[in-house]
Every structure is written in structure tokens, then in C-alpha cells.
Amino acid sequence: MSNTFLRCGLPSTGYIDFDFIQEIATISDDRDSVTVQEIVDCSRDVEEETIGLQFKRIIDAEGKISFGTGGLTTSITATLLEGWRIATAKTSGRFDIIEGNLVRWDGTDVYVPNTLVNQRQISAEFNFRDIGAAVNEVVKGNLITKFLK
């Protein structure tokens, strides 16, 4: 890799390659999905490297805000900055961004177009942990419509 590329290993398998000139983060072809948190963690890691410090920041993130006791939190929302986009090295099948919301600063598509792969982003609404209620219905768009006791 040249001095404008950095690779970040992902927890279980695979990696993300960061091209600082093209502003593309490419997920390895052995991954069918990547979480927003994994994208954020790797982006932060390469931003702190000597090469990364020479270029613009990649990502902003917020979320995981607690609604008090009971374990209800918002999901993570990350914003790709400037020209950054996500690509997959896969040549067939499906690739998903999961467990959070990933957007671009200008509102355009986060993906580099790839006609060989069905690319989807599965947005997360809220995270529930031991809140003592069953969720009857959840509607996309971060709107919870009904709880049952």
C-alpha cells in the first residue's frame, strides 16, 4: 500500500482499507455486513495514525444516549465527512451496514456504486436492555409507537 492508504483490522474477520486521496473506505470481500460502530472505530484509529493526521477527518459520530434508568438508549449515528464514502470489495451477493445510522454530510448515498452487489443500509431505531416491557410495534424512522407491559 502507498503512503495514502491505511488498513484497519475488524474484530472478528476482515478489514477496512482507507484511501485518503479518493476518500473511500473499502470493506474486505469476506464481510457480508459491517456495523456503524466498526466503521467509526476504524475511522478513529486511522485518523490518529501519522498518515491520517495529514488529511481531513473521516467521520463524526454521536448517539447511544440513555433515556434514564431502564436501559433504553438511542442507536449510534455517524456522519461521513466531506467526500468520504463506503465501498465493498465483494463482487456478488449482498452487503449491509447494520446496527446504527450512517449518513453523508451532504445527504447523498454513503455507498460507492457497485452494480454487482445489493448494498443496503439497515437503520437501527433504539436499543432495549431489561426495560421490563415487550415492544409490540416499531416503525422505521426512530419512532416507537407502542409498548406492552
| Biggest sheet, spatial arrangement of strands | 1-2-3-8
Helix share bin = under 10%
| Poorly predicted runs | 129-149
Question: How many domains, as an integer?
Answer: 1
What's the Cα radius of gyration?
Answer: 17 Å
Oligomer: single chain
Shape: globular
Annotation, overall tally of beta strands: 14
Label the structural class: mainly beta
Helix and strand succession?
Answer: EEEEHEEEEEEEEEE
Given the structure, what is the number of helices? 1
Largest sheet: 4 strands, mixed
What share of the residues does DSSP label as strand, in percent? 35-45%
Mean pLDDT across every amino acid position: 80
Q: What is the terminal-to-terminal distance?
A: 55 Å
